[in-house]
């Protein structure tokens, strides 16, 4: 009976590990989303004498493409656009005249897809008062309330003359919530874009401005669901950025994989923590450099860093496979951390660049969150290894070999794909 139980545990454990590694490989293509540019959705909520004002910026396709959208090749109809054939294929052209003539129907696209909810009482419906549609390449700053309000000085419905292709256009929207005040907590929600592949590259930046002149910043990636308070103290801000740091490393497949390889190459918890600290020191330096603009600005730099990150994983995986532990010296891991730090800075820069920057304390909290995220990964990994040691038949599993082989395959895929991105950038130099 004991043998049957052990056999069942062995097969179950093997299935879980196999399924995890397969899912990891299947999702490998999403890992470079850390380093490609995020498309910002910026929201300013400010308290006025007679209600709340919401200034919203987002990509225009996010608003226009409904849940039935099946891609460019489907040649579907898109509201407030018309199709035009060009040498590059079919283009969806923004119909500015239709938007102006049917403004109530256009406004309903917004109010049907956004909701502002108070924690303890009903909130009045949103009302669209102004829109400004423009070419995304020519967008002006929207990082402060004052700058955002300047987008609505030319009229109620403005469509710039150079607006053409839907997929190269953005929209600024002014909404109003009458008889509302910034008290207690609110949530702002939108399911727009959840059916689109690009939703995970949408960076949500929310700034809340009180009548007293104070402001708080919140951020997330993907579908919009943010809960916010009218005012947030320094402790709450620190905890918020700490949590963002934890989440950032947990959703970054390449960072998770490198952290696992560090754990596999370590012989004790003390050694693991020392190596994790060396990695943190390295990425802290380049994270700050990238965030404050002390790095090259050419389009080639991001894919070049992506390739280097993938190569560090390939190098580490081969070392684990060949049991070359000397490769994981503290100085070597520190230099690897320098490379990975640029990757952290790219996504953080996208998240806060539209929101006016981070303080040193916020940056420290984000870094500390990354460190805690590593500890979470190490903890989960340690439990798996302990369980493996406790059950005799599971000891036959060559877990380091499985992980390192998977890492080699994934990193080769990343190197090849990111090299194509780099070649595309170099082509236009």
Structure notes:
The longest helix has 31 residues, at 360-390. The strands form three sheets. Strands 7-6-8-2-1-10-11 form a seven-stranded mixed β-sheet, sandwiched between helices. It has helices at 2-26, 60-64, 96-101, 103-111, 145-149, 234-251, 253-265, 269-291, 301-321, 330-353, 360-390, 399-427; strands at residues 39-48, 51-59, 81-86, 89-94, 115-118, 127-135, 157-159, 169-178, 186-190, 202-209, 215-221, 224-228. By secondary structure, the chain is of the alpha+beta class. The model is unreliable at 21-36 (pLDDT under 50). The chain starts with a helix and ends with a helix. Strand 3 and strand 4 (89-94) form a beta hairpin. Helix content is 49%, strand content 19%.
- Quickly give the structural class: alpha+beta
Kindly report the average pLDDT value: 80
How is the biggest beta sheet arranged? 7 strands, mixed
Which series of helices and strands comes N to C?
HEEHEEHHEEHEEEEEEHHHHHHH
Low-pLDDT windows of residues: 21-36
Give a quick rundown of the structure.
By secondary structure, the protein is of the alpha+beta class. It has twelve helices and twelve strands. It has a seven-stranded mixed sheet with strand order 7-6-8-2-1-10-11, with helices on both faces.
């Amino acid at each position: 009976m004991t043998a049957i139980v052990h056999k069942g545990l062995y097969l179950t454990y093997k299935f879980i590990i196999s399924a995890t590694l397969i899912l990891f490989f299947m999702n490998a293509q999403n890992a470079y989303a850390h380093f490609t540019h995020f498309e910002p959705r910026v929201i300013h909520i400010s308290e006025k004498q007679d209600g709340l004002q919401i200034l919203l910026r987002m990509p225009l396709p996010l608003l226009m493409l409904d849940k039935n959208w099946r891609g460019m090749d489907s040649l579907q109809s898109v509201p407030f656009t018309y199709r035009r054939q060009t040498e590059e294929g079919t283009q969806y052209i923004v119909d500015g005249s239709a938007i102006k003539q049917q403004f109530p129907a256009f406004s309903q696209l917004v109010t049907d897809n956004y909701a502002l909810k108070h924690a303890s009482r009903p909130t009045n419906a949103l009302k669209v008062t102004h829109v400004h549609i423009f070419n995304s390449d020519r967008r002006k700053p929207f990082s402060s309330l004052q700058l955002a309000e300047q987008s609505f000085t030319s009229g109620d419905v403005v469509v710039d003359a150079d607006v053409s292709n839907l997929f190269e256009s953005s929209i600024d929207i002014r909404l109003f919530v009458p008889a509302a005040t910034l008290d207690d907590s609110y949530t702002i929600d939108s399911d727009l874009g959840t059916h689109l592949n690009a939703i995970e590259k949408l960076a949500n930046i929310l700034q809340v401005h009180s009548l007293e002149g104070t402001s708080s910043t919140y951020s997330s990636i993907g579908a919009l669901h943010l809960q916010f308070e009218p005012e947030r103290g320094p402790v709450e801000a620190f905890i918020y950025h700490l949590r963002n740091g934890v989440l950032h490393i947990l959703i970054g497949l390449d960072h998770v994989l490198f952290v696992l390889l560090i754990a596999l190459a370590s012989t004790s918890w003390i050694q693991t923590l020392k190596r994790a600290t060396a990695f943190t020191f390295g990425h802290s330096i380049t994270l700050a450099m990238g965030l404050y603009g002390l790095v090259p600005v050419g389009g080639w730099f991001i894919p070049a860093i992506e390739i280097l990150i993938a190569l560090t994983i390939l190098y580490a995986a081969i070392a684990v496979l060949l049991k070359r532990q000397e490769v994981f010296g503290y100085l070597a891991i520190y230099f690897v951390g320098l490379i990975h730090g640029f990757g952290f800075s790219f996504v953080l820069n996208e998240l806060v660049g539209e929101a006016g920057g981070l303080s040193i304390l916020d940056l420290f909290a984000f870094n500390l969150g990354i460190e805690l995220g590593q500890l979470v990964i190490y903890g989960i990994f340690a439990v798996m290894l302990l369980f493996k040691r406790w059950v005799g038949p599971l000891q036959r599993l060559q877990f380091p070999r499985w992980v390192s082989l998977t890492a080699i395959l994934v990193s080769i895929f990343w190197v090849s794909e990111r090299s194509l991105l780099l070649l595309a950038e170099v082509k236009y130099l």
